[in-house]
Specification:
The protein has 448 residues and is α/β, with parallel strands linked by helices. The chain is built from 15 helices and 15 strands. Helix 8 links the parallel strand 12 and strand 13.
């Protein structure tokens, strides 16, 4: 720059100076426009068109538990179908930084690295077209996946479809045991030997559940329904939940979904659970304490929104082929009549009675087996008689308490004896008496 005699300035620019000014302007544009200039620079077919051409910009949102697996599936699609030219993150000011990743349990007991805040600048392996995939994830694990490209809308739809297909065919949840919020359930590895059942009860379970699920395809071959619902009903502690554990373990190679009322309270929670069950079938859906979501005051006057949702899920236009629903309840008569008396929703009810004398004897002997103490016939008869109205859970508590008393007497080498059992029986009966008295007081109305 020089000045003449009149004070006017003259600028002399060489090639390097011009390029530097252009670069500064590009940087300024990027800072003002966030990621847009980067997108245009990568996607535009020519420099002249970068500021004018229109590219496709489409987004999808994935919520909390769905988010991690969808982001994992996206990464698999990109590594399979695209070449990644650059992986980074661009903030709202247009500054480029390193991509951010997260670890998540995509497969059971395996932590996998998945994108959290990432821009993938990619080239399609087939047609060499340019694409940018943006993943943004918030603290609540909700994520947004955005696709940018200069390709047609049909091409964009094909990518979305490829992502859905990968999820449907390669979903880590297929053949797994998980909750409606996609959290893995760790089973107890129970077997039928852990449960004392009468012959009739065992036969009903086999007929309505085990045999049916083992022969699903045969039912289909003869035009019969491949979906079924079974209610396990009985007092708390009679073995319903233990049966659920055993069945879940028995069919460990099939998809199993374990639901409680809390996991189904979200909007469309029941609908989404059955959508997943159909997608990953053959599937067993376990609903624990269904009376907490499927009860009504009477047959017609009142129904919760959840009842309508579960009625629709069990018997709607969309077939539940390959889906077996097993629900437990302590209060079967409280269930809405459309649930408890409508084949096609729940086809069978299996009642769990209090254990009879033979069952109580078997439970006691099984639980005492790890100990040195051997009951003689007279003492065994005495304990079996004393536990007349006990459920299996109360008998388990009886042995637990007997061992606690044995520990008090000999912490170094505890072993149950008859004194421990007698003391445990008295304690359990006192506890049950207190509970029952409390229930009576709660249901008593003071009129004065």
């Amino acid at each position: 720059m020089v000045k003449n005699d009149e004070g006017k300035q003259t600028w002399f620019l060489n090639k390097n100076t011009i390029e530097e000014l252009i670069a500064q302007q590009h940087t300024k544009n990027k800072q003002m426009m966030g990621d847009e200039q980067y997108l245009r620079d990568f996607l535009s077919p020519s420099v002249e068109e970068r500021d004018t051409f229109a590219f496709v910009n489409e987004s999808k949102h994935y919520h909390d538990y769905e988010s991690s697996i969808k982001r994992y599936c996206l990464l698999q699609i990109l590594e399979r179908d695209f070449t990644l030219d650059e992986t980074c993150w661009i903030d709202s000011y247009g500054s480029k930084t390193s991509a951010r990743w997260a670890t998540s349990e995509i497969y059971r007991d395996v932590k996998t690295s998945i994108p959290k805040m990432v821009y993938f600048f990619a080239t399609n392996n087939n047609d060499k077209s340019k694409w940018v995939f943006r993943v943004e994830t918030w603290e609540d694990l909700e994520s947004q996946l955005t696709i940018y490209t200069n390709e047609s809308q049909d091409c964009v739809n094909e990518v979305w479809e490829a992502l859905n297909d990968y999820f449907n065919n390669n979903c880590p949840l297929k053949g797994e045991f998980f909750t409606p919020s996609w959290k893995y359930v760790k089973g107890e590895r129970r077997t039928w030997d852990d449960l004392a059942l009468s012959k009739d009860l065992r036969e009903n379970i086999m007929l309505h559940i085990v045999d049916f699920f083992n022969h699903l395809e045969k039912y289909g071959e003869y035009g019969l329904s491949k979906s079924r619902g079974v209610i396990l009903a009985g007092k708390p502690g009679t073995g319903k939940t233990l049966t659920v554990d055993i069945i879940a373990n028995e069919f460990s190679n099939h998809t199993r979904i374990y639901a409680t009322a809390e996991t189904l309270m979200s909007r469309h929670g029941i609908r989404d659970m059955y959508k997943m069950a159909r997608l990953l079938s053959p599937t067993i859906v376990f609903i624990e304490d269904i009376d907490t979501i499927g009860s009504s005051d009477d047959d017609d006057s009142y129904r919760t929104p959840l009842i309508g949702e579960i009625l629709t899920a069990l018997n709607s236009v969309e077939s539940n082929d390959g889906v077996l629903t097993i629900a437990t309840t302590n209060y079967p008569d409280a269930l809405d009549i459309a649930l408890r008396d409508r084949p096609g929703r729940f086809d069978a009810r299996i009642d769990y009675p209090l254990p009879d004398k033979t069952m109580r004897k078997n439970i006691l002997l099984k639980m005492l087996k790890p100990f040195k103490f051997q009951l003689n016939g007279k003492d065994l008869t005495k304990i079996v008689s004393a536990t007349n109205d006990f459920t299996g859970a109360w008998i388990s508590e009886l042995i637990q308490l007997a061992f606690a008393f044995a520990l008090r007497k000999n912490p170094d080498s505890p072993d149950i004896n008859m004194d421990c059992l007698d003391e445990a029986i008295r304690t359990v009966k006192q506890s049950r008496s207190t509970i029952n008295q409390h229930d009576t007081d709660q249901n008593t109305v003071d009129l004065y």
